[in-house]
């Protein structure tokens, strides 16, 4: 791992007031990184404010530092720190951004455009890995809440150490977190295992609807309007549900259809490399990436199945 | 972590022929530990045989060394190595055990009774962690299959680094495995994410039946005979399914009822510490431990619900 550059350490050491921003709809890595860095800077007697998009996922609310989020902002800070944000637009920010001498960007996204006055961007499993290294470089003592926050960032962004963004450094850093707090089993269950009753029932309904399209490794799941009303209430159905199809042996492409209004579906598509499904999303006015995309669909679901099958077959022939 | 004692290293270095045994119904840690040690010893030009209980779980079959399992045994070995077995009875062994100068036990179970001539027992996340340390002490080069085998052992026995048996050493060792092979994402998905279509449908049926007993944090799931016939074909329903209840927020006790014959249920019970459910299993002629037990039940399911509720209430009052 690269050494944290001296100018980043100086920027944090030599200034007094910090505003921490993270991306919209913050996840475990955004919240964990913010809290670890914020609490660390407070230990150095810095003044730290957080401006964070709400609501925060229920499973993250256990971190006590969250009570310090979104208190009144100053008009002026020494430094605005942007964590886990690949672009400025992606950051959640107040309508009028306070003045600052400098913006400091710390991030692990490949797509980061280095839009800060100072930038430290490295492709790691999680931004929390970089924050850990910064905290160590600042000689800050990591307390158990900071350890929990860092573990939360790393564990959520790496899918409990299962994704391909995990490196030797990821495990090396987590090994050090175990020297601060010896057991993360309860936290791991909270982050990965537990679902509330409704989320669990929604998962069951999705599996119940799971269908493998004839002669193609394509999974389709449909959550009808009533099911979403009964168990969801909202359309924020987690990636977990979209991934059920992908976790079925042999499946390469999954479509999850959520009926937002009668006959109108919000479609989430997932594909395994090297298959690319973003074009069908663009065709229907949606967006996304090669392996994960979404769009709105009205019409005959059998036609959608046929389209997915065509995409698979066209690319299969290329990839063979 | 304790240094591997010199006499263990000498035993492996100074002898020539080895028979490797592991426990009955071998899991990822048993298979992974056996292959890593076996291939390691072969690198030192030792002769190695494996005698392993079949069938091996489908998800483990990717390891090429499995083709060397259960070839003809010699009448005599220098050393019989027992891996991941807490007692000799638990080991899978041929009807007539070949002669040997010495038995060497390597294990991570707290309950290990040190029944070998030589024993190295340490409470770690997985036996594979100890095997890794032994291989390093023997100066053996770890190839990618051995790295996969060790990763399989550690990842499966720690629930993808989520259980309370994980330590700083666990992550330190895995960090070193990433220096041998840089990506375990595909393997992780194979070990943890994937279910075949029928297993997935069985999971869905279990969630569909999930019920939280009124006024108590007790989950009950029932898989009826037809569902088991449709999707299971066997009663080997994985722990995953039994754990669905336990992974529902707030639940302390889960009962999974599998209808083996009309009106006759195989019941699997799980409890969270400090609750203890093994007595109800004993009462019905079953067995198990404090937090996981099983028995056969015929009769009125409402009575079973009532009994579970009573157990919860009696212990709740003790634990408050």
UniProtKB/TrEMBL annotation, chains A, B:
Domain annotation DDH: ranges: 18-154
Pfam family, one: DHH
SUPFAM superfamilies: DHH phosphoesterases (SSF64182)
InterPro entries according to UniProt: DDH_dom (IPR001667), DHH_sf (IPR038763), DHHA1_dom (IPR003156), Oligoribo/pAp-PDE_c-di-AMP_PDE (IPR051319)
GO molecular function, one term: nucleic acid binding
DHHA1 domain segment(s): 231-311
Signal peptide: none
Protein name: Recombinase RecJ
Organism: Acetobacterium bakii
